[in-house]
Structure formats: C-alpha cells, structure tokens
Specification:
- The complex is a heterodimer of chains A (302) and B (291).
- Chain A is mostly helical and 302 residues long.
- Chain A has one domain.
- Chain A contains 13 helices and no strands.
- Chain B is an alpha/beta fold.
- Chain B folds into two domains: 201 residues, Rossmann fold (3-Layer(aba) Sandwich); 66 residues.
- In chain B, strands 5-6-7-3-8-9 form a six-stranded mixed β-sheet, sandwiched between helices.
- Chain B starts with a strand and ends in an 11-residue tail after the last helix.
- The relative contact order of chain B is 0.14.
- Classes of the chains: A mainly alpha (302), B alpha/beta (291).
- At the A-B interface, helix 2 and helix 6 of A face helix 2, strand 5 and helix 3 of B.
Chain lengths: 302, 291
C-alpha cells in the first residue's frame, strides 16, 4: 500500500494518501474495567464476606456479654478472646475460598450459557485480559476484601471487648498489635499463591465444559485417585491433591500451622518461597490460564 | 482496499458443511444485505468475519485476520447479534461506563444524547427493559462508536414494527456516512431493500446471488402478465412464476423491458420475490421456503 511513498519522497507529506485518518482515541483501561464489570455481576464477592462478618460479630457480641458476666479471671478472659479472633479470620478465609471456587466455576461458563460472550467479544478486550481479570478475582480481589473486612471486624471486636472489660471494672483490653494484620496479610498471600492452580483449573474447566462444570472439575481427580488405588493400590495422587489443598500450612508456618499463630516468628516465608510445591503449582496455574485463554477464543455460545 | 475480503471461506461442524468455500468482497462504504434461509450459513459467515469462530480459507477484515486479531479488529468493528446479548444484570449507566472504559473510539456524549430520546432510564437493568428498549440501548452504544464496519445479525428480530422502522431510520440518518460499511442479515427483507447498496443470497453454505442493487434493478423484472399472453411470456423462460389473485406474475432475468411491456405491467421485483424465485430453483429447498 505504501510502495509509492518511496518513489514520491520529494513530495509533501500530504500527497501520501492514507485512508481514514486516525480518529482521536480515548485512553482505555480494559483490565480495570473488566474487573469492575466482574464486581458488578458478582456481588457475592463482597456481599458474602460482609454477611459472614456481621454474623460473626453478632455471635461475638453475645459471647462477649456472656463471658464478661461468667469469667472472672482476666488472663483467662484475654486468652479466650484471642482464640475467637483466630476463628473469625479463619471463617472469613473459608468463606472467601468458597466464593472463589463458585465464582471460577461460573466465570467462563456463564457468559457462554447466556450468550453474553457475543457482547463481550464485540469489544476490543483480548481473551487474555478477560481471563486474567477473572483470575484476579480469587487471587487478588477476594484476599483484599477479606483483609479489609477482617481488620475492620477485629477493630470492632476490640471495641466490644474493651467495653465489656470496662463495664466489668477491669482495665481496657490490650491494644491491637500490628502483628495481627501482618500475619493476616501474609496468610492471605500464601493462600492465594498456593491455591492459584486450583482456581486456574476451575477457570479452565469453566471455559471448556458445555454443562455440569462442577462435575467436570471434580471428575478427573476422583477418577485418577480411584484408578491409582485399584490398579496399583497406592494413593500418590490423592496425597498430591491433599498437599495442594492444605500443604501451605507446613510450608509457610513454623510447626505446620497447628495451633494459633500469634507471632511473626511463626512465619516462614523463606521456606515457603523455596518450596518446589509453590513453583510447580504456579507453573500449572499459568498453563491452565493460558489454556483457558485459548479455549475462550474457540468456544462459541452454548 | 476492500473492507472484507474472503477466498474459499469454509467451515464445517462435524459432517455438516456450514460454509462451502465462499468468495466475498465488500467494498468500503457499502451496505450489504446477506439474505438466506435458516441454516444457510449467514451467521457462520458473520462469526468468521468477527473473529468469533475458527474457519478455513483466507479472510481479511480491514486488513486484519479476524481470528488472531479479534481484540484489535474490534476497535474498528461493531456488532449487534441476532438475539439480545446484553447481559441481563447490566445497568444502563454500567453499560456506558464499561464501553467508555474499554473502547477508545466510544463517544459517550453521543450515546447519552441518543438515549435521551428514548424512555430508557439510567438506573434500569437490562432485564427490566422491553426487548425494543434493549435494542435501542445496544444501538445507542454501537452508534456512538466511530467504527468502520458495522455487522448486524438479525438486529430487529422479535421487535414490533415501530421499533424496526426506527432502528433502520436511526441507522441511516445518524450513523451511515458513506465511508462506513454495514453488513446486515435479516428475514425482514422488505425493510432493508431501500437501504442496501449490495445484495447477496446465500444457501447451503454457498453464494447463490451476488450483485449490486443497481444491477438488481436493471437485471430483474417482474411482469403481471395479461391472461391471454401467458403462453408467450412463458416462452421467454421466466425465472419463476406465481399466481396472485388469479393472475400470473412472471419474474425474468435479463429480459428485454420493451418485449415484456407488451405482455403486461412491468416492475422491479422486491427482494423477497427474487429470493423465493432463486431459492426455489435450488435443489433441496422446499418450494416457498420461509425467508
């Protein structure tokens, strides 16, 4: 098309005819808006953690009033309260995990089922951006939401506890240590990195299955486990799956994460980062996400 | 440079051939009507053009390969699909925000101005809108995008006659500016006849007819033959013959207008009649196939 421009090097630039002058374009942020759009569609991402937080707080309020009346020994009281805090954070993480799993199962399946994929694909957003924005929900957004909600919840709990102690005639509760949010953040990052291949697998199945996404996601691990057990009477695959689900505890925390984690000294980031299981998992996650990206290009509405 | 250029475009689903090696060339600034019965391959062809489905053969849209460069291509191409595909949970303001956020050529003020002329509220969800309003919303989004190619796949399916008329009026008055290209498929052929510049019939994955509207008007003639002249008219090898109110209407391809005028009243057929005539002569198509 531009072969003439060389021969016409002496002429003015205007003589070089280019069809359709480029129209001024607005700066776009496809990734940002893709994530916003996920939050519009899936309000459970922040509604579920908030509901769980409110339920836990109401339960905590009842328990605190009860303990303020029943327990007399202040040291005993503080110990019990600390344990409750851990349970609250763990409950939030479990809730976020469940939301993440169900989100991923539907993420690339739902848009094909309701044919909206035709609308999303009619816009200049690449399949990679779409898949990464969807993967960022369980890997980035849910941990962030969990962090904010848990910290807010713990602040409210601190206030309740202080009020209960003051009303019992004791000195106010120990101030919230800065260690707790750091431990929480560390735990959330560890969980997200460790479970990344699980979420990526669910996204891949979601991009591929024509129906029964949950079934297709569960079937291969179950079939392989059963096959291995029957054929070789071993359960390496089963223990691999278990390691993938819970192995982060022994890699990232001293003492295998048993009991409560109260101090930064119990965190073992060096050990976690040097665990082959982490990197193998991340490699699988990347492969699954790339496969899901490719699958999204090929798959048509169901 | 043609806007769309295809050579030997082919697509099969298992043993069913949806597109059987079609050649296609659409120049910029044209409005092409792609007409065919259900299952003829129209949507398959459009999906290939839009990069929504893989295909075999050569295809370039605005100089790009739609399959590998869909996201780039969609900066210059807009698309309204046969069924309402706007997400039902989406609110009107969210639709505007999102498209403005991801599309570099979206003029939000233009979309707002178009919506202001409708009864669509900013806070409504798509599920709360009537079918006609959803189409209006989609049209508002699409018309505010400064695209070079607009693809419409049955855009007015299921709409009442008012919305259908409004749809094409808006398209012609507010959107089409002679530099843009539009490809439209529809069953309501008579509604698009006056806006098309080119016409293409497709059946069983093959192009049956490909001509400009000028060619269509000069080439095809329809004669309401006076009863006494029917045998003479039949001798001229009409493409098709049908009976209306007891009179014979014969459709001719490349006939002499003066010769025909002697036999009865001559006029340009409408596309639907030509479609029936052409498709009726195709093997495997039932006579009077539903368009």
């Amino acid at each position: 098309m531009n072969t003439q421009s060389g021969a016409m090097s002496g002429s003015s630039p205007g003589a070089n005819e280019i069809p359709a002058p480029p129209t001024p374009t607005m700066p776009t942020r496809p990734m940002y808006w893709s994530i916003r759009r996920e939050l519009w569609e899936n309000r459970s991402i922040y509604v579920v953690p908030l509901v769980v937080a409110v339920v836990v707080l109401i339960a905590f309020l009842i328990a605190t009033i009860g303990r303020a009346i029943v327990i007399v020994d202040p040291a005993h009281k503080a110990a019990v309260l600390a344990e409750r805090n851990h349970f609250a954070a763990a409950a939030m993480m479990a809730a976020a995990f469940i939301v993440g799993v169900f989100y991923c199962l539907d993420a690339l399946y739902g848009e094909r089922r309701d044919r909206t994929i035709l609308f999303w694909k009619s816009l200049p957003v690449s399949d990679l951006t779409t898949v990464l924005s969807k993967a960022s929900i369980p890997l980035v957004i849910l941990p962030l939401v969990t962090f904010v909600v848990v910290v807010a919840m713990q602040l409210v709990m601190l206030l309740l506890r202080s009020a209960a102690l003051l009303m019992s005639g004791l000195s106010a509760a120990t101030p919230l240590s800065l260690e707790q949010p750091v431990i929480l953040l560390y735990s959330l990052i560890v969980l997200a990195l460790w479970h990344a291949p699980l979420y990526a697998w669910l996204l891949l199945v979601s991009s591929w299955a024509r129906r029964a996404v949950f079934l297709w996601a569960m079937l291969p691990p179950v079939v392989i486990s059963v096959f291995e057990k029957v054929a070789f009477n071993t359960s390496y695959f089963q223990s691999m799956i278990n390691y993938r689900l819970t192995g982060f505890a022994r890699e990232a925390f001293a003492g295998g994460g048993h009991g409560s984690i109260d101090s930064l000294t119990q965190l073992t980031p060096g050990n976690f980062l040097s665990a082959p299981g982490l990197w193998i998992g991340l490699a699988f996650a990347a492969a699954f996400l790339l496969a899901a990206t490719r699958m999204r290009r090929y798959r048509e509405p169901i | 440079m043609p806007c769309i250029e295809a050579h030997g475009l082919r697509k099969a689903y298992g043993t069913t051939v949806a597109l059987d090696g079609i050649d296609l060339s659409v120049e910029e600034g044209h409005i092409l009507g792609l007409i065919g019965p259900n299952g003829a391959g129209k949507t398959t062809a459009l999906n290939a053009i839009l990069g929504l489905a893989p295909y075999q053969g050569e295809l370039k849209v605005l100089g790009r390969d739609p399959w590998t460069e869909r996201d780039q291509l969609m900066r210059d191409v807009c698309f309204i699909a046969d069924v309402a595909v706007l997400p039902r949970w989406l609110r009107v303001w969210q639709a505007l925000d999102y498209v403005a956020g991801v599309h570099p050529r979206f003029d939000r003020a233009k979309a707002e101005a178009f919506l202001a002329k409708t009864a669509i509220k900013r806070g409504s969800k798509v599920r709360e809108l009537s079918k006609g309003m959803v189409t209006q919303l989609h049209l508002a989004l699409v018309m505010a995008i400064d695209a070079r190619l607009l693809v419409l796949d049955e855009p007015t399916l299921g709409l009442d006659i008012l919305y259908r008329k409004q749809f094409y009026d808006s398209l012609l008055n507010d959107y089409f500016d002679r530099s843009r290209t539009i490809v439209v498929t529809t069953h309501q052929v008579e509604e698009v006849q006056h806006i098309l510049t080119d016409l293409m019939f497709i059946n069983h994955g093959r192009i049956v007819l490909d001509c400009s509207m000028e060619e269509f008007e000069s080439r095809y003639l329809e004669v309401m033959v006076n009863p006494e002249h029917v045998p003479a008219a039949r001798a001229l090898k009409p493409l098709h013959e049908r009976q209306v109110f007891g009179r014979s209407i014969l459709l001719f391809d490349r006939a002499d207008r003066r010769e025909l005028a002697a036999l009865g009243e001559v006029r340009t057929p409408n596309i639907a009649d030509l479609f029936v005539a052409v498709m009726g002569n195709q093997p495997g198509t039932p006579q009077g196939a539903v368009i």
